[in-house]
Design a protein that fits this description.
By secondary structure, the protein is mainly alpha-helical. It contains four helices and two strands; from the N terminus they run αββααα. It has two domains: about 1-40, no CATH class; about 40-89.
């Protein structure tokens, strides 16, 4: 049991090399820690792909909603998209 707790503790940190070659510890984000805690089980490759797709869809929906709000707030429409499309780069 102590071994599992030690492994879990180590998994909550990722190690990065600093330019001076000293080891430094960088904490994982709160989302990464939460996912580690939630998925403390072995998943098949198919389940991992499914989870990835769920997360991608979630954030895609959030972005779409935010863009729709931005367009509505600024009273933009298809003509704004055309304006952006024809802008010189």
């Amino acid at each position: 049991m102590a071994f599992l707790l030690e492994i879990r503790y180590l998994c909550k940190y990722q190690f990065i090399k600093a330019t001076n070659m000293e080891e430094k510890i960088k904490k994982l984000t709160n989302a990464q820690i939460e996912l580690i805690n939630w998925f403390d089980l072995q998943m098949t490759d198919e389940e991992v792909k499914e989870l990835r797709q769920i997360l991608i869809q979630h954030y895609s929906d959030k972005i779409t909603t935010d863009i729709d709000k931005l367009f509505e707030k600024n009273d933009w429409g298809q003509e704004k998209i055309e304006e952006w499309r024809t802008m010189p780069t």
